[in-house]
């Protein structure tokens, strides 16, 4: 995917050395001023002149997001803590805001309606005039702010985990299996949901997301999501491109979170880790296969970084490996390539887990996983080389 630099190319194109150096100095001064203003805005939230209502507090947070993304889009992870002393409190506020907004859109809705409402909230929608071409979607800015924070040190990840952000995003990923094709979505339904794209001013609904439904490249991600995180998009992509861009940034947030042990343990405590196993091995419409591959990527991140003993015990007691084998056996409309992708994800997980414990390998054997693998190989060898 091409970078979203806009029609004019990069700002520094055509400058000589001295001009480029001066431009860099100006940018540094502007960022320093921006950081000072960011601290002032957050101080007004922490220490308001008068008590703030929930709506007023959320409005102030949303107003901070473009500046936060601009100041820290090209900073190192350590800059978050060194330059922004209140970053942990800021992370807490932003994480809770995302969780609240998602719950608002998922509560008392069917899985299809909830998935549409959430994705419309999170997608880039357009430009806000006069604000340096910042996308107008509050959800898109919120997601990009979380993406920058998720690249921070473990203390920031811990705050995001305590706010239930990892389990909330996994629920969203599972719901996204019910999304309609972005190129054929009904425009009237889109208009009906448009009010949810703006920030809701209703009281937050602290209800669990509906997860009752039963269906269910790292370097490339970093490149595209890094461009998106800068919030400097001068061109609004088409519907399919917006969905793809959302998927890349959404998954990068999850991958960054799951590169730590805490989020995996939170998923186990909230009984949401099983959703990743189910999503990685379930059938879905062709236009949503990207979300299944995303679930597999996140699952493999958990296997590389999050396999503590509580997590392994949860996977064993919940029968997650047996669930994967059962899903692959019973889903009739999966192509051989899809089955191979699922098997790769499961075997990568089993390989990583074997360094800690043999119990999940034993689970795979008990679930007749090896028998399924042999049957699958022989069946397709026969198809490929008929007598």
Automatic annotation (TrEMBL):
Mind telling me what this protein is named? WD repeat and FYVE domain-containing protein 3
Is Mitochondrion among this UniProt entry's keywords?
Answer: no
Composition skew (Polar residues), residue ranges: 187-197, 211-224
**Keyword field:** WD repeat
Q: Provide the taxonomic classification.
A: Eukaryota, Metazoa, Ecdysozoa, Arthropoda, Crustacea
Q: Specify where the region named Disordered lies, as residue ranges.
A: 186-224
State the signal peptide span.
none
């Amino acid at each position: 995917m091409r970078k979203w630099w806009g029609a004019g190319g990069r700002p520094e194109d055509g400058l000589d050395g001295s001009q480029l150096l001066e431009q860099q100095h100006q940018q540094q001064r502007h960022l320093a001023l921006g950081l000072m203003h960011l601290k002032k805005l957050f101080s007004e939230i922490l220490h308001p002149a008068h008590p703030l209502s929930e709506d007023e507090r959320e409005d102030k947070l949303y107003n901070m997001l473009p500046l936060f993304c601009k100041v820290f889009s090209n900073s190192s992870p350590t800059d978050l803590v060194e330059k922004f002393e209140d970053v942990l409190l800021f992370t807490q506020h932003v994480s809770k805001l995302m969780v609240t907004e998602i719950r608002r859109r998922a509560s008392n809705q069917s899985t299809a309606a909830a998935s549409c409402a959430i994705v419309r909230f999170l997608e880039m929608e357009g430009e806000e005039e006069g604000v340096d071409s910042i996308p107008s979607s509050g959800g898109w800015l919120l997601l990009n702010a979380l993406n920058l924070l998720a690249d921070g040190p473990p203390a920031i990840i811990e705050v995001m985990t305590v706010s239930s952000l990892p389990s909330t995003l996994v629920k969203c990923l599972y719901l996204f299996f019910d999304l309609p094709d972005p190129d054929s979505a009904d425009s009237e339904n889109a208009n009906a949901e448009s009010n949810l794209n703006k920030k809701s001013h209703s009281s937050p609904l602290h209800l669990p997301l509906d997860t009752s439904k039963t269906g269910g490249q790292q370097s490339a991600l970093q490149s595209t999501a890094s461009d998106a995180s800068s919030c400097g998009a001068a061109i609004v992509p088409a519907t399919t491109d917006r969905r793809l861009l959302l998927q890349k940034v959404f998954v990068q947030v999850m991958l960054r979170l799951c590169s730590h042990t805490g989020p995996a343990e939170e998923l186990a405590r909230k009984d949401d880790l099983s959703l990743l196993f189910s999503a990685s091995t379930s059938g879905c419409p062709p236009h949503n296969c990207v979300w299944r591959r995303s679930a597999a990527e996140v699952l493999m991140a958990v296997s590389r970084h999050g396999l503590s003993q509580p997590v392994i015990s949860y996977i064993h007691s919940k029968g997650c490996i047996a669930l994967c084998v059962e899903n692959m056996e019973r889903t009739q409309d999966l192509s051989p390539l899809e089955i191979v992708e699922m098997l790769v994800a499961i075997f990568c997980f089993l390989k990583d887990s074997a360094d800690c414990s043999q119990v999940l390998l034993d689970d795979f054997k008990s679930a007749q996983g090896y028998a399924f693998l042999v049957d699958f190989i022989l069946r397709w060898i026969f198809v490929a080389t008929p007598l």
